[in-house]
Amino acid sequence: MGLILASASPRRQELLRLITEDFTVFPAAVDESLPPVLSVQKAAQYLARKKALAVANEYPNDIVLGSDTTVVLENAIFGKPKTPEHAAEMLRQLSGKTHTVITGVALAQGERVSSFQTETAVTFYPLTEEQIQAYLATGEPMDKAGSYGIQGYGALLVQNINGDFYSVMGLPVAETARALQRFYRENDADVNV
Question: What are the residues facing 67 on neighbouring strands?
Answer without folding.
Answer: 105
